[in-house]
Structure formats: structure tokens, C-alpha cells
Amino acid sequence: MLKEYFLFLVLFESACAFAPAQSASLPSVEEIAPGIFAEGFQAKFDSATCGWVRLAKETLLIDLPHGVAFPEFLAEVERMTTRPVRSFVLTRSLPSDREAIAALIERGLKRIDLPEQRGLIGDVAEGIEFIPYDKVSRLPGGAIYLSRQKVLFAGPMAINGPRVKLAGSDTAAWISALADLEKLGATTVVPGFGSWSGPGLLERQRLFLADLRQQVGYKISMGYSIERIVREVVIAPALSVWMPYDTPNSEDIRHVYDELTIPAAPFGGQAPRRDDPQPHALVLIGDRFHEPEHIEAGLRPVFETAEVIPHFLVDPKGLTAENLKAIGLLVILRDGYIWPEDKGISWMTPDQQRAVVEFVEHGGAFLNLHNSMGLYPENGPYLQLVGGHYIGHGPLERFRTEVVDPNHPITRGVTDFFTADEQHTPPFETNKVHLLLRNRSDDGKVVAAAGWAYEPGGGRVCHLANGHTREALNHPMFRRLMVNAVNWCLRKDKPSPEN
Q1: Which end of the chain is flanked by fewer CB atoms within 10 Å, N or C?
Q2: Using an 8 Å Cβ cutoff, are 58 and 82 in contact?
Q3: Quick check: is 11 in a domain?
Q4: Per-residue b/e over 105-138, b at no fewer than 16 CB within 10 Å?
């Protein structure tokens, strides 16, 4: 008889745990996984969400309800979970929440202290993990991940429906945070604001932010005014699925513009520490014919392999003597023109030319890629430093890059290779630079320099001619060349790990 009684209790409890989540006072509540509930609130509350989890002996509240009295809310939660609500945790904290937090504590609920680093909270056996992201989005906070059920309460990192307000955020770090959350493998995602859905919610928002940064960055690299950029930015329909509600407005676009231009760029308002043992690089990319997004994507793995911290820059005004003092390596992959009124004009000033030359002569490293001799001031100190000049290129087609000196550290482990790119044919100063590579057209009629290096003053300079296309930047041999070149320029002179 006792055995049957316990069986009855188990069945009753199980039935309660999986009963439909229906409530007159909480009409939007949904049981998104066994024992895990989500609730959304009205637009006047920014479509904020909250949730709760049925634990072994109690119910854990995740974030705060809005527009409903606490006694009624807590009673409904306890009815659904058959467990008392004894603790709560917040994925974000707003000044306006202080009274609500105080009210919960007054009712006897314990606020769970969150770790500064990623880690489990509460009972370890429950497998509830907090992932802090500080103020990546405009709100400080983090995410709560229930690994056993693969449910993610993404907090302020995810917004699905309302406009993604960007003021006060770090959009580059936000994109990186979303990529980290995607790696968790959650099957259900509850955003801090808006509708819950599958993991595609995180990917869409990441691509949404990346597309906005890409468009604004490309237009900055061409020298467009902020007024023109605001007029011309249009998010791809596949990424703006709640239009017009999630369409970025001028405030959002201006925020990204401010992030990508001086004085915030290139270091996010905080220059590298001079005593940092890891080298830093200032990487100036993008122009009218070289969209910066794919260049950055192609160069990032190079810096990761070489263990160098890159600071990407699309605003040429950020190339200054002061900024060069903060880094050890300058990398440029862009030409010398901007197009503010659809008419090309030179952007590099005499002060900028002098800054680059003095940076190298005093021990700095300079990696000059692809078109970074094109359209710069003729016979100026910048081109004299590089050791060659641009006279044009062939069409986009496959051609061969050949190793001239296989014994130099830059060409170590590199063999001849083909790639689809523009075959540049720059004359170079044979009495000054050391030729490392040449390119040869398929018909053998065009042969030209494809890379050289030398040591002016106390610094080092390397020029590599490839780099226009994704294929060229991602080619294993060219990537090895770039890693070797970074190491040589910084006097690390060690083989690439691929060797």
C-alpha cells in the first residue's frame, strides 16, 4: 500500500510539472522545456521577458515581471511549478528595478550573487550557468544557461522584435558575445526583450549587427559624411525580419559611426599599455574597391596565429603619430583615395607621411599589402619608404606567385602557388629592397615583383602584392607568407605553426 502511495505522489507531481502553462494573469506564459517557463510583457515595458525554473526543492525566478503585482505573480508561478519561489537571479539590472528587487527581498526571496567570471550558480547539481558580459550591450548583465535542458536566457545580449538600441553599447564586443552564446548549442533562446525562439535568433542578431557595422565601415573608408551614411544604410530584409520595428534609426547608425571613427577608433578610446608583452598592430583597411569586412576576416587568423593583437581601422584620420606610438606593427591594405563627393581625392597628409616614416625609422614594423602603394602622393616620403610604386594591375584572373628567395624568414616554408587575384606590376628600388617573390601571368608574358623586404633605419618594411580577393587572403600559402611577414617585421622571426 505504501509503495502505491509513493507511486501516486510521483505521478501527481509529474503531471503538475508538465501541465499546460495557462494563467489568466499571465496570458503569455509558456513552458518552453519541462519545468522551465518563459513570460513576455507589453511593448510599454520594452517587451521585456522573465522566466522561472522548477528545481528539486524550490523555484528559481529569472528576471523580473512587469505590469503584474508580485503576490499574484508569485502565486501563479508556485501553482505551475508546485515549488515555492525562494530565490531570483537577474540577467540585467536597471535603476528602475530597484523597488521591485527590494520588494522581492522583503517577501523573503534571496537574490543570487553572480560570479564575475563564467561559472555555475546555486546548486551545482542543477547545472545553471551564468555567463557575464558586462556592458557589451547598452545594459550591463549576462546570460543564464541551463545546460541540461539546453535553454538559454540570453538577457540584454539578445533582442528579438523591438528595435536593438545601440547607444552605449560596444557593437564589436556584442557580436563576439553572440558568437560565444551560439557555441553553447542551446535549442531554445529567451531574449531579454522580445519573442523567444530557437538558436537562429542569436545568429540573426549577430549578422544584423555585423551587417550594420560592415555598411557603416565601408562608407567611412570611402570618406562619406555621416549624413550620407545615415541616408544610405539599409539592412538586408533577411536580417530585419520585424520591420519597421527593428529597423536601425539615425541614432543607431551614428553610434556605430562614432565607434569606427576618431577619437574612439582605433583603440576604443583606450590605447594599448606600453608594458603589454603581446605586440599590438594598427591595421588600416578598406577603400572604394576593397570592402573592409572581407579584408578583416582574412587578416584576423593571421594575427591570431602570430599572437598579435590587431586594432582594425577604417577611418584614415586615425593614422597619426600618437596612435603609432601605441603599437609595434602598422599594416595597411587600402589605397590613397577617399571619395566624399564621388570624386577621388588623396587623404594622406604630409604629417601622416612623416609619422609613418618616423615610426619605422625609430624601430617600428610596417607590412604593406596589395594596393597600399596605389594613389598615394607621388615621390613622397611614404612611397619612398615602401620602396616601390603602383603603375596598375591586370584583370581578375588566376596567375602564379613564385618564390625568388626561399631562404628568407618571410618565405620560409612557402612554395609557388596559384590564386585568383589582380596581378600587380610595381616597379621597385632594386638597390634598396630585397626581392622575395614575383608573379607570372598564365601566358608567361607578364612577370613582376610580388613581394620584398628591407630594414630602413631601426625598423622593418615588407610589401606583399596579393590580397584583393577572399581567395587570395585565405590561400594557405599567402596566409603563411603573411604570418611569416608579421613575425619578421616584429623581429620574432619564428616559423609559422603550419610549417
Answers
A1: N
A2: no
A3: no
A4: eeeebeebebeeeeeebbeeebebbbbbbeebbb
pTM (2 d.p.): 0.90
Written as one letter, the residue type at 214 is: Q
In a domain, 100, yes or no: yes
CATH number assigned to the domain comprising residue 197 = 3.60.15.10
Q: pLDDT tier at 6 (50, 70, 90 boundaries)?
A: very low
CA distance linking residue 418 with residue 359, whole number of Å? 34
Residue 81, C-alpha cell as written in the block:
511549478
Is residue 352 over pLDDT 90? yes
User: 72-115: per-residue pLDDT in tens?
Assistant: 999 999 999 999 999 999 998 778 888 999 999 999 999 988 87
**DSSP string across 302-365:** HHHHHT-EEEEE--GGG--HHHHTT-SEEEEES-SEE-TTSS-EE---HHHHHHHHHHHHTT-E
Domain enclosing residue 247, as ranges: 210-258
Residues 66 and 197 in one domain: yes
State the CATH number of the domain containing residue 361: 3.40.50.880
State the Cα–Cα distance between residues 354 and 362, nearest whole angstrom: 12
pLDDT more than 90, % of the chain: 77
Is the pLDDT assigned to residue 498 strictly greater than 70?
Answer: no
The number of folded domains in the chain is: 3
Residue with cell string 553610434 = 255
Query: Per the omega criterion (within 30 degrees of 0), is the bond before 263 cis?
Result: yes
- pLDDT number for residue 15: 37
Q: Tell me if 468 is assigned to some domain.
A: yes
pLDDT at 23: 64
Q: Decide if pLDDT at 171 tops 90.
A: yes
Report the distance separating Cα 44 and Cα 209, nearest Å. Answer: 24
Grid cell, residue 431, equals 638597390
Residues 328 and 465 in one domain: yes
Q: Strand locations in 4-150, DSSP E?
A: 30-33, 36-40, 49-54, 59-62, 85-89, 110-111, 119-120, 128-134, 141-146
217 with 322, same domain?
no
**Angstrom distances, CA of residue 250 to CA of 63, 256, 257, 261, 437:** 30, 10, 10, 16, 47
Does 182 share its domain with 105?
A: yes
8 A C-beta contact, residue 114 and residue 121? yes
Residue 472: pLDDT band (50, 70, 90) is very high
- Residue-wise pLDDT tens digits, 181-226: 999 999 999 999 999 999 999 999 999 999 999 999 999 999 999 9
Sort 369 into a burial class: Cβ within 10 Å, 0-12 / 13-18 / 19+: buried
Q: Where do we find the cell 499571465?
A: 26
**Up-side HSE of residue 6: CA atoms within 13 Å toward CB?**
2
* Residues 348 and 437 placed together within one structural domain of the fold: yes
